[in-house]
Amino acid sequence: MRYEVLLDVIAIDDLLGGVLTILSHDISIKGAGLIVDKKLTPGDTIKIFFIMSDDAQRIPVSGKVVWVDSLGFERYRVGVVFSDHDLRPIPMVLRSIKVRTSRYYC
Fold first, then answer.
1. Which residues contact 19 (CB under 8 A, 6 or more apart)?
2. How far is CA 70 from CA 2, 25, 45, 102, in A?
3. Facing residues of 51 across strands?
4. pLDDT in tens, 36-74
5. How far is CA 21 from CA 45, 91, 94, 102, in A?
6. pLDDT value for 81
7. CATH number given to 3-105
8. Which pLDDT does position 105 carry in this prediction?
9. Rounded to the nearest 5°, which phi and psi values hold at 59?
10. pTM for the whole thing?
11. Domain-by-domain residue ranges, the chain?
């Protein structure tokens, strides 16, 4: 099951050797949909750090790009399957919801 969640993400692309600052679109226990401004290629491996909105904690995970869709000029949505399955997305989603609801409804 995928959970729609908007988190800041830092990704290190092994092939480009660069650091990308991107956003998450959705997340699951096996992978994530990300919004990026550089075109990645299926098969690229990346190290991802999800940045939690409540305390800036960085949650690391490695993955491989499995698909890329163009969203327009220099914007892409990419699907990443995680190499290590230690990620627990539900607590991340709940923390994200708590930050959004306390920011907008309190």
1. 10, 11, 12, 13
2. 20, 14, 19, 34
3. 8, 58
4. 888 889 998 888 888 887 788 888 888 899 999 998 888
5. 16, 22, 22, 25
6. 93
7. 2.40.10.220
8. 45
9. -110, 110
10. 0.76
11. 3-105
